[in-house]
Amino acid sequence: MTPITEVEGRRVALSNLRKVLYPRTGFTKGELLHYYATAAGVLLPHLRDRAVSFLRYPDGPDGQLFFTKNVPPGTPDWVTTAEVPRSSSEEPARQVLVQDLPSLVWAANLVTEFHTHQWLVQTPDEADRLVLDLDPGSPATIVHCCEVALWLRERLAADGIEAYAKTAGSKGLHLLAAVRGGSPERTSAYAKELAVEAERAMPGLVTHRMTKSLRPGKVFVDWSQNAGRKTTAAPYTLRARPLPLVSAPVTWEEVAQCGTPEQLEFVAEDVASRVRDHGDLMAGLLDAERAAALP
C-alpha cells in the first residue's frame, strides 16, 4: 500500500521509500525525498513561477532516464500548471510549476532532476537569467572550467553584470546572472558574444563551438541554453549521476582555489551545512533590483 503523507495540508502519495537509487552509496528514494524537503527553503525560490521540466530516473541513474516537459499523468489537481509557448507552428504546452513544498515533494517522489527556462511564465518573451554552461572535454576538468569562469566573471562585470557560480553536479560549472530588458534571442546572442570573446582570449583552453571534435582538452562555453525553449538544471537539484551529486552554488573563493575536481563535488548530505554556513549563494539572482540591463 502506498503511504500517504500530509504536507502543508496537501495529501501526497509516496512510494518505494527504501528503494536504493544510488547503489555506490546506498542512497535511497527516502533520502532523496528528505533532501528535497530540507533544501526547499533555498530551492523553491529558484523554481517558483518557472515552468519545470523533469529528468526522471525512477530506477536510479543506471536505469532508464527520460526527459519530460508535459504535465505527468496523475498530477494532483492542486499542483499549479501553466501554458508555455513553443514554436509559432505548435500549440502551447502545459507544464508544471513547483510553487510550494507540497508540489516539490510530489515532484520529488517521481525521482527527478529539476530543469527551468531562463524566463518566468508571466513573461516568456523576456529573459531574466543569463546562463553559461562550462563543459570540459576530457582530459580537461572542472579545474579548467574554474579558470574560464574567473575570466568570464570579470568580463561580465565590465558590462555591469554580476555572475554567480554553481557546479553542474556532473563535471562542469554553470555561471548565472540576473538580467533585464532582453528577449531570449537577444540574451542568447550576447551569451554567444561572450563565448567567442573567451575563445579569443584563451584559444588553447576555450571553444564556443558545439562540434565534438573541437572539444577534447578544452572548455566548451555553451551559450545556447539561453534560447527560449532551452532549460538548465536548477540550483540545488540532485543529478542523475553515479553519486547523489547536487548542482550546488559555490563561492568565488572556492572557484579561485579549486585545484582538483573533488574540491567542487557536493553530494546531498553536504548541502545543509553549506546553507548554514553561506545561506543561498545565489540569492542575488532573486533580487530584481540587482538585475542588470544587457548592453
Automatic annotation (TrEMBL):
<protein>
    <submittedName>
        <fullName>ATP-dependent DNA ligase</fullName>
    </submittedName>
</protein>
<dbReference type="InterPro" id="IPR052171">
    <property type="entry name" value="NHEJ_LigD"/>
</dbReference>
<dbReference type="Pfam" id="PF21686">
    <property type="entry name" value="LigD_Prim-Pol"/>
</dbReference>
<dbReference type="GO" id="GO:0016874">
    <property type="term" value="F:ligase activity"/>
</dbReference>
<dbReference type="InterPro" id="IPR014145">
    <property type="entry name" value="LigD_pol_dom"/>
</dbReference>
<keyword id="KW-0436">Ligase</keyword>
<dbReference type="InterPro" id="IPR033649">
    <property type="entry name" value="MtLigD_Pol-like"/>
</dbReference>
<feature type="domain" description="DNA ligase D polymerase">
    <location>
        <begin position="28"/>
        <end position="281"/>
    </location>
</feature>
